[in-house]
Specification:
42% of the residues lie in helices and 9% in strands. It is built from 13 helices and 9 strands. The strands form 2 sheets. Strands 4-5-6-7-8-9 form a 6-stranded parallel β-sheet. A 3-stranded parallel β-sheet has the order 1-2-3. It starts with 18 loop residues before the first helix and ends with a helix. The model is unreliable at 1-15 (pLDDT under 50).
Length: 309
């Protein structure tokens, strides 16, 4: 099994991925016989917004947990999409999110246009607890949105806010998955953790929630929710990597639960906002030792079935 230390990131952020990295991703796929990867947690957003996100990481903002967080893939938008294709990612998302009222509808318009010009991107949308949220969520669903992103930590809102309740109902009825950052890592917020989102699920048990980052650091509590609710899934974003293991190690005693939940776990990466090469996420999953069938399901089959790709 490879280690990410032998695949250096481009320090200038001006070139594509090192050839060695693309080759290593290809070898990973070849070992598993995969036609490609499906990554449910990649970030594409308006360039002005993305640059502010990168600036936040560069400044070690409080929500980074004070950790140094060098962005590995600072290329322009088209080149970043080309990198994912070179890695064999056959479907990805444009995870974007609003941190204040009045942003979500504008972001959804941008994301719809991005999806039109990027056929391998799953049309993504977002939401925020504000008047009119049900209307613009319904508009996005009717316009073809296939996945939503919600960020409880950055948005600093309660996902069980009554303003969001009808929007969750629309998404549950439509069967549109929602990738939601609701765990308390890398820094806790007032409304992070399993409690608030459990209240949402109690009202909307058919809501297709994909808990980002495996619910880091409350891994086992979010695995509980996946066991209790048939439509709850978890994505692997940053989990099990060297970076995350130093911050919030996955409990070794829960590996058997991870194996049992293999049909509920989806590959996520956080590309391009990761402080290590993309291939390291794949190696981190491989070194769990849960077998090739588990890896095939996580890296491709589960998301391919969920999204029909």
């Amino acid at each position: 099994m490879g280690d990410h230390s032998d695949v250096p990131a481009d320090p200038t952020g001006t070139a594509g991925p090192p050839r060695a990295e693309a080759d290593e991703v290809r070898r990973f796929r070849g070992r598993l016989g995969l036609p490609g990867l499906v990554d449910v947690h990649t970030h594409f957003m308006p360039e002005s917004v993305l640059r502010k996100v990168w600036g936040y990481f560069d400044a070690l903002g409080p929500l980074t947990g004070g950790l140094e967080w060098p962005i590995t893939y600072r290329q322009e938008e088209a080149e970043r999409a080309a990198i994912l294709r070179e890695f064999g990612v056959r479907a990805f998302t444009s995870m974007l999110y609003s941190h204040k009222p009045g942003m979500a509808r504008w972001l959804n318009g941008w994301a719809a246009d991005f999806a039109r010009r990027t056929p391998d991107c799953l049309h993504t949308a977002t939401l925020f607890p504000e008047p009119g949220v049900e209307a613009y969520v319904r508009e996005a669903v009717e316009a073809g949105a296939r996945v939503f992103k919600a960020h409880v930590q950055v948005g600093a809102y309660d996902p069980a806010d009554e303003l969001l309740d009808p929007a969750w109902g629309v998404l549950a009825e439509a069967g549109v998955p929602v990738v939601i950052h609701c765990g308390s890592g890398p820094a806790p917020g007032e409304h992070t953790g399993p409690g608030p989102i459990a209240r949402v699920l109690a009202r909307h048990p058919r809501l297709r929630l994909v808990v980002a980052h495996m619910g880091m650091p409350e891994y086992e509590e979010f695995l509980d929710l996946a066991e209790w609710y048939g439509e709850v899934r978890l994505d692997t974003t940053m989990a099990f990597t060297d970076f995350a293991e130093k911050l919030a190690p996955f409990p070794p005693g829960a590996l058997s639960r991870l194996a049992d939940a293999g049909d509920r776990i989806l590959l996520g990466s956080d590309f391009p906002n990761i402080p290590y090469p993309y291939v390291h996420q794949l190696h981190a999953l491989e070194r769990l030792g849960l077998g090739e069938d588990w890896l095939r399901a996580v890296c491709h089959d589960n998301a391919a079935e969920l999204f029909g790709v």
